Amino acid sequence: MTPKRIILVRHGRSEANEDATMYSRVPDYKISLVEQGREEARIAGRRIAELIGDGDFGVYVSPYLRTMQTKECILSQIGQKPVFDYQDPCLREQDTGNLPGVLEAASNREARGQYGAFFYRFPNGESGADVYDRMSSFMNSLYRLFERSDCPENLLIVTHSVAMRCFLSRWYHWTVDYFDSLPAFPNCHIVVMTRQVDGKYQLAEPMPKLLTVA
Length: 214
Fold this sequence. Notes:
- This protein is α/β, with parallel strands linked by helices.
- The protein has helices at residues 15-18, 35-52, 65-78, 102-115, 128-146, 161-172, 176-181, and strands at 5-10, 57-61, 85-87, 154-159, 190-195, 201-203.
- Strands 3-2-4-1-5-6 form a six-stranded mixed β-sheet.
């Protein structure tokens, strides 16, 4: 049974969103939310609670600290426990290298802008294409879930901006050029994919000009 909705959420505002030098001092997976990010996640949780109503739901989350914290803030507002709550490393942030120096990190991001976000590979890290491949592996897990009779009505996926764009690009078969044109999603941005009568999913947000079905 395919779910009624697939809901993707980017994590809330993090320490590194306020101070990019954090990436040079703290392992990316240990970067925490700031209080603003926690409040953003609670607001997102209330909105998601309205979306799913009394329907059941399952959760997939990136194992990074900021996504785990975002998930907990969201769940605090929903008022019911998920059918399952799975960490999946496929949903992790794009790897930009291990504690790159401040100048190196800035240079790498400038190079990505010139080269193209999809194919540029960070030194000792990943390209957008690598994250896209991870999304293909994650979707295999989803398809196995869809075959089960106890698949919940709603799926909540808490992840990162690049991973969200790669997931959507993989699902809707968006081109590389279109991917490269997409801006980063804001913190705690919600994207809702709703199943239609023909079984395909319509993208309701965040781009109303792209009500794509697939």
